[in-house]
Amino acid sequence: MLKNKITTIGGATRDIMFYTDDMVIVDNKKDLLRKKLIGFEYGAKVYSKNVSFTFGGGGMNTAVNLAGLGIKTQTILSIGDDMVAGDILRELSVKNVVSKLVQKNKDTISGTSFVINVGKYNEHVIFAYRGANNKIDLTKRVVNRINTPWVYLTSLPKGSKASLRYFFEHCEKNKTKIAWNPGTNQLKMGLKGLKKYMQCTEVFDVNRDEALELVLSVKGKDTKDNIKSLLKFLHQYGQKITVITDGHKGAHVYDGKNYYFRPAFKRKSINTTGAGDAFGSSFVAGLIKYKGDIEKSLKLAIAVSNAVISKVGAQEGLLPAKHLKKYNL
Fold first, then answer.
1. For residue 1, pLDDT beyond 50
2. Are 21 and 49 in contact (CB under 8 A)?
3. In this structure, are residues 203 and 254 in contact, taking their beta carbons and an 8 Å threshold?
4. Which residue has the higher pLDDT, 251 or 25?
5. What is the CATH number of the domain that holds 278?
6. Residue 168: inside a domain, yes or no?
7. Which pLDDT score is estimated for 310?
C-alpha cells in the first residue's frame, strides 16, 4: 500500500454560496489593505440570483485537490458533532482522503461560511463561523503522528502560537517539507513574528494583499505595491520558494535566483472561492509530481485554479489527474 505523501492542516466548512447584484463596489484607494469595499442598503432585503451549498475550508480544500491530482493525502481537521460533520467525513471518503487524523468535538458546531459573490469577476466576501475549527488540536500528541514527507499548512485559530512552534520544530527535526499559506491570525503576527518559521518553510504562499500586509508590518509607508519588490523582500526571510498570487492577473514565483510568472486564463469566473487553495496545493502537487520543476508546477497551479473559478464552490471545479493531459501536464 502506498504511504501518504502529504498531510494538510486547516479548516473544514459547509459553505453557503450567495450571488447578488444588489450592491455597490466602493473605491477606497487610500487604504492599501482595503482598496475596494462592498456596500448594501441599510435595512434592505438583498436577493440572490442563485444559492448553492458546497464544502470549503483550507485544510479540506487542499486535501481534496491533492488527492484528486494523484497525491496520497491525509488531513488534520476539526469537525463538530452535527450533520455537517457527517457530510464532511463522507465527502473525504468519496474523494480518497485519509481521515484517521480528523478530530471530532462533542457539543460543537462544525465550521460554516456564508459567501457573497459580486462584481465582474465574482469576487467574494466571506462571513465565517469557525466553530469546531477553533478547536483544532496541534499538541505534541497530534503533531508527532505526522509522518509524511510534505505538510500543507493553512489557517489556524487564534492562540496557536505554541502549537505553531512545536509543529515547525517537529517538521525540521524530521526533515519534513512545509508549504505554508498563513491565515489571518498568523498574518497578524507580522514578518517579525513569522520570520523564525519562514526560515523552515519550503514554499511560502500568499496573495498580493497579504504580501502587502506583511511588508507593511516592517516597512510601513515605504512599502511599494510592486510584485517583484514584494517577492524579493519577502524572500529574504528564509523560505526556499516565495509565491504571490494576483487574482485574475496570474501568479508570481521567486526562488532566490529566478522570477517566474504565469497569467491566468482569460475566462469569466463564476466564483473565486477556493481559488487560492487550489493554486497553492496544485503548485505543491506539481513540485512532488514533477520533481521540483517550478515552471511546470506553476503551469499546473494556474490550470487547476482557473478550472475552480468556472464552477460554484471551492471544490466542484477541481481537475482530476486524468484530465491533465489536455494541458500537456
1. no
2. yes
3. no
4. 251
5. 3.40.1190.20
6. yes
7. 86
CA angle 207, 280, 316 (to 5 degrees): 105
**pLDDT tier, 293 (very low <50, low <70, confident <90, very high otherwise):** very high
Which grid cell is 313? 464552490
Q: Are 186 and 178 in contact (CB under 8 A)?
A: no
- On whether residue 1 sits in a domain, the answer given is no
Number of domains the chain is built from: 1
What does the pLDDT read at residue 121? 66
Domain enclosing residue 201, as ranges: 6-41+48-327
Q: Which positions ≥6 away from 212 have C-beta within 8 Å? A: 32, 33, 223, 225, 230
Q: Which three cell numbers stand for residue 88?
A: 464532511
Provide the whole-model pTM: 0.89
All three cell numbers of 226, joined, read 510592486
CB within 8 A of 327, min separation 6: which ones? 299, 300, 303
Compute the mean pLDDT over every residue in the chain, rounded to the nearest whole number: 92
Q: Which residue has the cell 468519496?
A: 94
Please answer whether residues 54 and 72 qualify as being in contact, where contact means their C-beta atoms are separated by less than 8 angstroms.
no
CB 245 within 8 A of CB 277: no
